[in-house]
Each structure stands twice: as C-alpha cells, then as structure tokens.
C-alpha cells in the first residue's frame, strides 16, 4: 500500500512538471534567480560529500525564518559534537543566501524537489547520519528514502498550526507518514499534544522549547546614526513602528494613526518592500503623502509629521530599535502573524491582531507575561494606539515583561541537542 502511494506521488510530480514545463521555461527566462532554484532543486551543482571522513549531520530550513532558527542549533551542535560536520540545506534562494551569510563556515546546499530519484541522489551525495528538519518541513519521499538509508529524521523546534493539524489528521494514514520520524522536539505543550495525536509514539515526542529565543540578543538594538537621522522623531515625539505588514494593514495602521496618534512618528516596514511604490500611491489617493526610506537616503528632507515606508530589505531589527510602540503585522489579515519575539527581545511594547496561528506559542507567552496586547480588529487598534501612546508607564511595564519573557525562554537549543544526542546521534 505504501509503495503504491509513493508511486502515485512520484507520478504526480512528473505530471506537474510536464504540464507546467512551458511556465517553468517562461518564468526562468524572465527571472534568473528562479532558474537558479529550479536547476539546483533538480540536483545540478550538488557537491559529492560521500567520501568525507567525518560523520555528517544535515540541518534543513525551508527559507529565511527557519534558517535563522537553525543558527543557534548549528552552533550548539558544533560545540557539543565537534566530530560531526554540519551541512545546512534550504529550499528558497533567500534561505540559501541568508544561510551562507550567517553561517559562513558551514557548507550550504539546496534541498531537492521531492521526487524519489532526486532525493536518493541528494542523500547519496550528502550521506547524513542524521537529518534535522526545522519546525515541520516534511516531504513524503524524503522521509521514505531517509528510512531506507537508515538515516534517523528529527523535527526540531516543532510546531503544527491548527489548520495544518486538521489537514494532517485527514491524511495521517497515507502521506507524509509521521511514523517515519524518529524524534519530535516541540516548541510548546500544545504542539507536542498535536504530534502525539497523529499516530506518533509518545516516546518520540519531547518538549524542548522555542529555539528562536536562543537566536535573539536581549536588549535594545542601536539603529545607527543614519536611521536615527532619517527616521527618528522630533524632540518629545512618540515613534510607532508597524513591522512586517501585509496588504491592507498599512492602510489600516495609517487610518488608526490619523485618528488616534497624529502627533506620533509613524514608520511602516512592509513584509514585502517591493509593494511600497503601489502603497505610496494608494495612500496618496487617501490624502496621505508618505515618504520612502530610499528617497530619504537620496536626499529628500525627513518630515516627522509624515509616515515613512521602509522600502529596503534587512532593516526591520534596527528600525524596531527606534520604536516606542510596535504593531506586528500579518495579524489583522488572515495570514497567521509574524515574529513577535524580535520586538519583545528589544523590550518593545507591542500590539498585534487576532490572526496569530503561525506564532501561537510566542503570542501566548508574551500575552501571559503582559508584554503585549492583542486587538480584535483595526478599530480596536486605533483605541489601543491612543491609550498606549499616552501611557509611558504602561509601555515601560510591557517592555520589562517582554525582556524577561524572552530571557526565560533561552536554552531550547541546548535541550534540543541533548534530545538529538540521546535518540539520533548516539
């Protein structure tokens, strides 16, 4: 039965490739980076490490967020198990690029498409003694071929959203076959219970905490002189930063700002900076002339009374350093939220909306600590902005609570490597 399922799954991959081939060619011609990803996921350019003398551990993170989680784990593995070589894989171009930037001394490779021959080639070339998957990046053929090769597979920093849980319950007897996974290291108790509900032997599930906290520096980040000059407030002005926003949250935060805190300095950092041109035009139609960080750097005079759109990549952490109050986006729309630990680690009081499924445990942690407030909708956002912008003592309490909550979470990487050593690396 399992063989038939995997054969059908492989045939679907082949059919999708054949049907989508004209689109793949068209997209590749228009986007060299997309072509790079397609070629590398087919196994081209994959180094042959099979003859290496040291045993090898594979750590896989699908994209940037998971790669960042991998950093403290990779460092702890290197500290505790120096006899192992760690290889990091990622699926996306951004994940590959970030991995090479933050882990310059670690070999980085592209994770293959989940077609049986490609997965076998990948495992034969890399030859890991253990495969570690960040959060829940599981592929049926990868699990099957790893089992066949005798390679234990571990899910670390594991989490499973309610939507994904319902979907996996529906297909748990078919694919992706959770019983092929040796170890689940869960972020929180609720996630651990969900893994146990998917026909997973409870002895394979352990609670190790959230590794994201280990990768965060606790305390304020210096935004630097340039950002302070271009985005900073005038004397006595409160700074509100809306980070990782999605359409149409930017319009809602601007409307809330105009209604509740028009005297505040508003800085918006969209999740996808390429949207800033269109967003600036939309706001202009609504009577708001926003500035753009790229224009300020080109010589435009900063105006603290106008919103600023950060239209460049990699600025969010330093922009948070300017904030007196933060709104975390992806939470007023049905997206599942964005990372709330990053501003909390800087001691920034924050607001976010009802959609936090992707960061459920982090949101619960900070809500219980009193480090943030969750608003029901954009109208409540305006009221919360007005209240907190005018209450510096409440913001100070939230700031201290956030710093303490993040600090208390550290140590998950250590616990995770201990579990890996007992079940997968012994």
Describe the structure.
By secondary structure, the protein is an alpha/beta fold. The protein folds into 2 domains: 54-209 and 411-423, Rossmann fold, CATH 3.40.50.2000; 224-409, 3-Layer(aba) Sandwich (Rossmann fold). It contains 18 helices and 14 strands. The strands form 2 sheets. A 7-stranded parallel sheet has the order 3-2-1-4-5-6-7, with helices on both faces. Helix 1 (2-30) runs antiparallel to helix 2 (32-41), helix 3 (64-80) runs parallel beside helix 4 and helix 10 (249-260) packs across helix 16. The protein is globular, with a radius of gyration of 23 Å. The two termini are 32 Å apart.
CATH-level-4 superfamily name of the largest domain? Glycogen Phosphorylase B
Number of strands: 14
Q: Helical content, roughly?
A: 40-55%
User: What overall geometry do the principal axes of the alpha carbons give?
Assistant: globular
Low-confidence stretches: none
Oligomer: single chain
Overall number of structural domains: 2
Structural class: alpha/beta
What strand order characterises the main sheet? Answer: 3-2-1-4-5-6-7
What would you say the CATH architecture of the largest domain is?
Answer: 3-Layer(aba) Sandwich
Rg result:
23 Å
- CA distance, first residue to last residue: 32 Å
The major β-sheet equals: 7 strands, parallel
Strand content: 5-15%
């Amino acid at each position: 039965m399992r063989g038939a399922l995997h054969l059908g799954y492989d045939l679907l991959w082949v059919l999708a490739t054949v049907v989508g081939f004209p689109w793949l060619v068209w997209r590749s011609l228009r986007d060299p980076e997309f072509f790079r990803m397609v070629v590398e996921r087919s196994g081209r350019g994959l180094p042959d490490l099979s003859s290496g003398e040291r045993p090898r551990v594979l750590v896989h993170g699908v994209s940037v967020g998971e790669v960042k989680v991998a950093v403290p784990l990779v460092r702890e593995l290197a500290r505790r198990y120096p006899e192992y070589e760690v290889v990091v894989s990622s699926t996306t171009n951004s994940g590959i690029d970030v991995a090479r930037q933050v882990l310059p001394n670690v070999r980085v490779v592209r994770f293959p498409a989940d077609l049986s021959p490609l997965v076998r080639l990948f495992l034969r070339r890399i030859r890991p003694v253990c495969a570690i998957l960040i959060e829940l990046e599981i592929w049926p053929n990868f699990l099957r071929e790893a089992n066949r090769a005798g390679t234990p597979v571990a899910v670390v920093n594991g989490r499973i959203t309610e939507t994904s849980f319902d979907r996996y319950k529906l297909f748990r007897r078919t694919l992706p076959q959770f019983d092929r996974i040796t170890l689940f290291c869960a972020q929180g108790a609720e996630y651990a219970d969900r893994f146990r509900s998917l026909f997973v032997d409870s002895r394979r599930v352990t609670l190790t905490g959230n590794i994201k906290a280990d990768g965060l520096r606790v305390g304020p980040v210096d935004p630097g002189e340039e950002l302070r000059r271009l985005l900073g407030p005038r004397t006595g002005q409160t700074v509100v930063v809306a980070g990782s926003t999605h359409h149409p949250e930017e319009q809602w935060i601007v409307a809330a700002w105009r209604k509740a805190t028009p005297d505040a300095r508003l800085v918006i950092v969209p999740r996808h900076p390429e949207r800033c041109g269109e967003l600036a035009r939309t706001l202009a139609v609504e009577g708001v002339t926003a500035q753009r960080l790229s224009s300020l750097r080109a010589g435009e005079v900063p105006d603290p009374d106008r919103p600023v759109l950060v239209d460049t990549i990699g600025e969010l952490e330093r922009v948070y350093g300017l904030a007196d109050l933060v709104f975390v986006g992806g939470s007023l729309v049905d997206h599942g939220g964005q990372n709330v630990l990053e501003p909390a680690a800087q001691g920034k009081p924050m607001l976010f909306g009802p959609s936090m499924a992707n960061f459920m445990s982090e949101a619960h942690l900070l809500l219980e600590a009193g480090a943030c407030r969750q608003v029901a909708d954009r109208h409540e956002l305006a009221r919360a902005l007005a209240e907190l912008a005018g209450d510096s003592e409440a913001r100070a309490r939230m700031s201290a609570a956030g710093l303490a909550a993040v600090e208390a979470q550290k140590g998950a990487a250590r616990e995770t490597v201990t579990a890996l050593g007992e079940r997968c690396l012994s």
